[in-house]
Amino acid sequence: MFSKEQLQALIDGEIVGNEFPYDTKNEQEIEAHIRRLFYRINRIPNIVCEAEWNHFGSGYASFVEFFCYQKDDVLIVEEKYDLREIKTEGIIFDICRLAPVAIMGEDDRYKTIRIETNEDVSGAYGSLIDGQNRLCISERFQTMEEKLKQALMEFEYELLEVELVNQPLPFQTKIPTIYRKPNEYLVMDAIFYWED
User: For residue range 100-124, what is the model confidence (pLDDT) as tens digits?
Assistant: First the structure.
C-alpha cells in the first residue's frame, strides 16, 4: 500500500501519488477532482451525497467526508414542540486529499429541524476514523456500495482494505489527530486525520 516513507510524508501533509491530479501536487486540482467525483455520485439515481468540504469547521482534515444515502433511508423519528427528529442511514466514505485512496463504512445520522422554518437545530453523526469496527458495509447497502465503488474506480481512487488500514502503524511518530493517542496509532491515522 504505502511505504513507511510515504506514510510519514502523508503525516507531514505532503501529497503522494503518481496519477492525475495527485502527480501535480496541486491542492486546487485535487480538490476539483474530488468535487467532480461528488457531482458524479449525485447523478446516481435515488442517491443523495453530502460532503464536508470545510475541515469540519476548523483545523485541517486530510480528507473530504462524503455521506451517501437513498431517499428511502430518511426516517422521521419524532415530531413534537415544533421540532422534527430525523434519522438517516447510509454509507460514509472518506476521500484522501493527499493520496488517491478512500475508506468506506456505514453511519447513522440524526438531526433535529424546526418544522416551521426547516432550519437545523442540532445533529449527531460518527466518523469512520474514530473506531476500527466502522469500516464495514451490511448487505442492506450492497447495491449502493457497488454504485459508489464504480464511481471511485472511474476517478481512479483505490478503496483501501480494512485489514491493511487497521494494522498498527509500524513506526513511532506524532500525528495531528484528535482520534487516537500516539501509542495506539493505526495505518489509517497516517492517511486520514483531522487536527482541530
Answer: 999 888 887 777 777 777 777 666 6
CB atoms within 10 A of CB 82: 11
Q: Rounded to whole angstroms, how far apart are CA atoms 80 and 65?
A: 31
| CB-based contact 91:68 (threshold 8 Å) | yes
3-state DSSP assignment of residue 140: helix
Q: How far is CA 92 from CA 29, 49, 103, in A?
A: 23, 9, 9
What predicted TM-score, i.e. pTM, was given to this entire model?
0.83
Q: What is the CA radius of gyration of the chain?
A: 17
Judge contact between 178 and 194, C-beta under 8 A.
Answer: yes
Residue 78 has pLDDT above 70, yes or no: yes
Write the burial class of residue 185 (CB in 10 Å: 0-12 exposed, 13-18 middle, 19+ buried): buried
| Set of cell numbers at residue 113 | 429541524
* Rounded mean pLDDT, 54-83: 79
What's the CA gap between 136 and 169, in Å, rounded? Answer: 21
Strands in the chain per DSSP E:
47-52, 60-61, 63-70, 74-80, 83-96, 101-114, 120-124, 158-159, 194-195
Is-contact 1 10, C-beta < 8 A?
Answer: no
Give CA–CA dist 54/127, Å, rounded: 15
In degrees rounded to 5, what are phi and psi of residue 53? Answer: -90, -25
Three cell numbers, residue 54: 470545510
